[in-house]
Amino acid sequence: MAGFVLRLARESAALTRARLGEELAVDVDTVQGWESGRRPLANVKAGVLLEMRRRLPVLGAQPGIVAAFEAAMDADRILAAGLGIGGRVHPLAGWVHTRETAHLLSWPLTGTTPPVLAGRLPRPRRGPAAAAPVLSVGQREAFFVHLRETTERAAGQGEEGALLHRQALYLASYDRGEEAAAWTRAALHRGRDVLARRGFSPHWAGARSTATALARQGDPQPLLDFIDRALADDDTAEAANLNYWASWVGALGPAQPDDTFMRDQTLTGWDPVTLLRGLARGLHVAPGYVDLYAHTLWALLVRFPWLPQAAGQIAGPLRVRTGQLLDGAELSARSRRELGRVHYGLDHNR
């Protein structure tokens, strides 16, 4: 993944491999090895990576592509673990992954281009260069088998395996094969007991992941129930949801090692405008999750009522999108009420 992003960055600057090699003081074979994955960027010295990320924008590479490097390297670590070449600690147990990492993982697994790279890919061309990162059928199957086995193993580890379990199960739901989908639905429904709990609990993060994964499988009701029972009108749960979203969209900063950050009710570890921007961007590609987006936008503006005035260029497109959703029929009654207040706040502060 990281090698493919490097290739995209280089091509966006119209650089040859030889020119990039000169700039980074390496030979052409090294650059080609990085881009093909033959020489994983994860094995490159930190100083070289830092120089690469600094030099590419100076040389004309699109900043949005260069910004995807970190998530791409995280995705590589998860893929490596799934293919049996990872380290001692599973990366899904080592940190809370972000939306960008999940989107980059989805690319070779489902063929869906990450939104952060949409419109930035080169036109397909003749020759051996792939138009997207590719896993063989065998690699893809092995990765999903690993995720399912990891999910089942982590389920028996109690609180110690909670982070690994919920993140492995969430990614396993990307496999839409008939047998895999049946396994995922069964695994998710085995965890539905946590969805019945009201307000915040030690199982809140797992319940949230279960509800969102079921929504991706085409069953939206558990997510609606989760919003009503385990999120709305509970201050701790509302703070946890905002903190989770801040981490998910990359507004929180350094990767979080576990889920304890969600319990911080001060909400001072992230920038509200950055979170608003991330929610606004995701709302455009959120079928199945639109009610969670709507509630989170409403809760964010309740906590930070000055946000519509600080939204800047975000406000216009978000106002249009919320208006479109309100004109449609896909919102629950709660979401329609809450998103209506968001739309009014944005419209009132034009």
Largest sheet: none
What fraction of the residues are assigned to beta strands by DSSP? under 5%
Ends apart, CA distance between termini: 41 Å
Helix share, percent = 55-70%
Global mean pLDDT: 89
What structural category characterises the helix and strand content?
A: mainly alpha
Query: What is the overall silhouette?
Result: globular
Descriptors for this entry?
single chain; 350 residues; mainly alpha; 19 helices
How is the topology of this model organized?
Blueprint: H1 2-12, H2 17-24, H3 28-36, H4 46-58, H5 63-66, H6 69-82, H7 91-94, H8 99-110, H9 137-155, H10 162-172, H11 178-190, H12 204-216, H13 221-230, H14 235-248, H15 272-283, H16 290-303, H17 307-310, H18 315-327, H19 333-348
Helix pairs in contact: 1-3, 1-6, 2-3, 6-8, 9-10, 10-12, 12-13, 15-16, 16-19, 18-19
Quick structural summary:
This protein has 19 helices and no strands. It has helices spanning 2-12, 17-24, 28-36, 46-58, 63-66, 69-82, 91-94, 99-110, 137-155, 162-172, 178-190, 204-216, 221-230, 235-248, 272-283, 290-303, 307-310, 315-327, 333-348.
What would you note in describing this structure?
There is one protein chain. With 350 residues, the protein is mainly α. It contains 19 helices and no strands. The chain has helices at 2-12, 17-24, 28-36, 46-58, 63-66, 69-82, 91-94, 99-110, 137-155, 162-172, 178-190, 204-216, 221-230, 235-248, 272-283, 290-303, 307-310, 315-327, 333-348. It starts with a helix and ends with a helix. The model has no long low-confidence stretch (mean pLDDT 89).
